[in-house]
Design a protein that fits this description.
- There is one protein chain.
- Helix 5 runs antiparallel to helix 7.
- The strands form four sheets. The chain has a six-stranded antiparallel sheet with strand order 6-7-5-4-3-12. The protein has a two-stranded antiparallel ribbon with strand order 1-2.
- The two termini are 29 Å apart.
- It has two domains: 99 residues, Phosphorylase Kinase, domain 1 (2-Layer Sandwich), CATH 3.30.200.20; 183 residues, Transferase(Phosphotransferase) domain 1 (Transferase(Phosphotransferase), domain 1).
- Helix content is 34%, strand content 16%.
- It contains ten helices and twelve strands.
- The chain is α+β, with helices and mostly antiparallel strands and 355 residues long.
- This is Protein kinase domain-containing protein.
- Keywords: ATP-binding, Kinase, Magnesium, Metal-binding, Nucleotide-binding, Serine/threonine-protein kinase, Transferase.
- InterPro entries: Kinase-like_dom_sf, Prot_kinase_dom, Protein_kinase_ATP_BS, Ser-Thr/Tyr_kinase_cat_dom, Ser/Thr_kinase_AS, Ser_Thr_protein_kinase.
Length: 355
């Protein structure tokens, strides 16, 4: 396979990493585990005094499994290195030896799945839910503009920023360039959020391959959007396979009947059975922004008495004004002065000593 923007090459099983993205394991410290998937574990860690997320990929046992995972690792690292967006996790670097490692920025807000679970039975404010949806849509739009399909869009792969005001898309392990998709198996992605065109009777039984395109992400996005709005598990009462079967063979979808017409239209257009009838993400963003514009702004949380004449008004050169400004700058700034970043968090061990 040729290199992508000179990033990597796979030739006779040789893997080459651009030096500017090469992580030095001697400077990598691994701390508490914060996530786990079928083929990798994610840890909080440090790299050259920077707080990071460290994804350690299991290499596999058989030669076939090793080759498959190394290929997936190569694709993920190449895509992370060439695509930057405020709603995509920031790539810091990677290394293949002694084990396959991907290092990204550490997002301390936790996964969207855990955040939604913490709120139940309450739901997100509609404006917040739609705002998160716009973040997600912008991330996918960026990937699609580079010819990349994510293929595994779900709340577990969406991480909140520390202030819980924005969402970033992570985990490119299943992402593929659309020109190189070949075909995909039913094992790709997570069943409950997967597009129905990925399934047929043969696919479910034997793992055989079917054609697909970037519109699989639109379907998954619709299921995530439904979950953002309702804060309920889509296809409640069904197992993952039952949900996939119902969506593929019975055209079952979560209910959009109780939603405003504009919002229901976004959902139903994105999860249409015919992939070609689904909107692209530029259109999805526009529809979401139009809907957000129509929503009434949330009521201010400031007590009304603050705006009465009882409040003193200071002149610009008043000591009172200066003291208020000092409090504002020190206590309410964007970057509060704390020592939290210098405090150790959990137990960190040197990556180089253990591998």
């Amino acid at each position: 396979m040729d290199s992508v923007n000179g990033f990597y090459s796979v030739d006779n099983s040789e893997f080459k990493l651009d030096s500017k993205w090469l992580i030095d394991p001697k400077h990598l410290f691994v701390g508490p585990r914060i996530g786990e998937g079928a083929h990798a574990k994610v840890y909080e860690g440090k790299y050259k005094n920077q707080n990071v997320a460290i994804k350690i990929v299991h290499r596999g046992d058989s030669p076939e499994e090793i080759a498959k995972r190394e290929g997936r690792f190569a694709r993920e690292v190449a895509m992370l290195s060439r695509v930057q967006h405020k709603n995509l996790v920031k790539f810091i670097g990677a290394c293949k030896e002694p084990v396959m490692v991907v290092v990204t920025e550490l997002l301390s807000g936790g996964s969207l799945r855990k955040y939604l679970l913490s709120l139940r039975p309450r739901s997100l404010d509609t404006r917040v839910a739609v705002g998160f949806a716009i973040d997600i849509a912008r991330a996918i739009e960026c990937l699609h503009s580079h010819g990349i399909i994510h293929r595994d869009l779900k709340p577990d792969n969406l991480i909140l920023t520390a202030d819980h005001k924005a969402v970033k898309l992570v985990d490119f392990g299943l992402a593929r360039e659309e020109s190189l998709t070949e075909m995909m198996t039913a094992e790709t992605g997570t069943y409950r959020w997967m597009a129905p065109e990925l399934y047929s009777t043969v696919t479910l039984r034997h793992g055989e391959k079917k054609h697909y395109n970037h519109k699989v992400d639109a379907y998954s996005f619709a299921i995530v959007l439904w979950e953002l709005i309702h804060n309920r598990l889509p296809f409640e009462g069904m197992s993952n396979l039952q949900a996939a079967y119902a969506a593929a063979f019975k055209n079952v979808r979560p209910s959009a009947e109780d939603l405003p017409e504009d919002l229901a239209l976004i959902l139903t257009s994105c999860w249409k059975e015919d992939p070609n009838a689904r909107p692209n993400f530029s259109q999805i963003i526009q529809m979401l922004q139009n809907y957000l514009f129509k929503l009434k702004p949330p009521k201010p949380m400031i007590p009304s008495h603050v705006f009465t004449s009882e409040n003193a008004i200071f002149s610009p050169d008043s000591p009172g004004t200066s003291s208020l400004m000092a409090v504002t700058c020190d206590d309410l700034g964007d970057t509060p002065k704390t020592n939290m970043e210098n405090k150790p968090r959990g137990f960190f061990f040197c990556f180089n000593q253990c591998y």
